[in-house]
Design brief:
The protein is α+β, with helices and mostly antiparallel strands. The chain is built from nine helices and ten strands. The protein folds into three domains: 29 residues, no CATH class; 134 residues, FAS1 domain, CATH 2.30.180.10; 28 residues, no CATH class.
Length: 197
């Protein structure tokens, strides 16, 4: 699937006497803002803007290149327990891993995404980016709230859930989500859960 500034190419290679015509399904508008500038000007991304500033990722999101930012909205950050969020925001390494987990290594418009596509993030992990009917999905869940916000250095999709990679979780948080959650109850009862957090 070929796109031009996120407009889908419908018919290609109509040859004319003085050139060639490709038919697309949208009017292409001028794009002037970088991904960083979009984050700075969008009210629903205020928390993300603060997190990017704290992790020194500004220069990357202003740089030339082609990225896809899965931008967590303020609502996405509010869904996370305050204690967990404060811990991540206070840990530069975990914060950078968290943000890099939301950045794909290439620009990916919604029209070019097909079911079952696996994309690598800047963090080195992978995300399953796909579609279910008209909805875009991440790891099988339809959490993309707004798609195809074009930037000079890529594209932004707003997501309404935070994607926390394992590297940004404590041992306790990892264990609670796995097959050893029962063991965690024993650690808690024994007063040892602090060692895992």
């Amino acid at each position: 699937i070929v796109t031009v500034n996120c407009a889908r190419l419908l018919k290609a290679d109509h040859h004319a006497t003085n050139g060639v015509v490709h038919v697309i399904d949208k009017v292409i508008t001028t794009t002037t803002n970088s991904i960083q500038q979009i984050i700075e000007t969008e009210e629903s991304l205020e928390t993300l803007w603060a997190a990017v500033a704290a992790s020194d990722l500004n220069s990357l999101l202003e740089s030339e290149g082609q990225y896809t930012l899965l931008a967590p909205t303020n609502e996405a950050f509010e869904k996370i327990p305050r204690e967990t969020l404060n811990r991540i925001l206070g840990d530069p390494e975990a914060l950078r891993d968290l943000l890099n987990h939301h950045i794909l290594k290439s620009a990916m418009c919604a029209e070019a995404i097909i079911a079952g596509l696996t994309m690598e993030t800047l963090e080195g992990t992978t995300l399953d980016v796909g579609c279910s009917g008209e909805e875009l999905t991440l790891n099988g869940k339809p959490i993309i709230a707004n798609k195809d916000v074009l930037a000079t250095n890529g594209v932004v999709h707003f997501v309404n859930e935070l994607l926390i990679p394992d590297s940004a979780k404590t041992l306790f948080e990892l264990a609670q989500e796995s097959e050893v959650s029962k063991s965690m109850d024993f650690f808690r009862q024994a007063g040892l859960s602090s060692h895992l957090t």
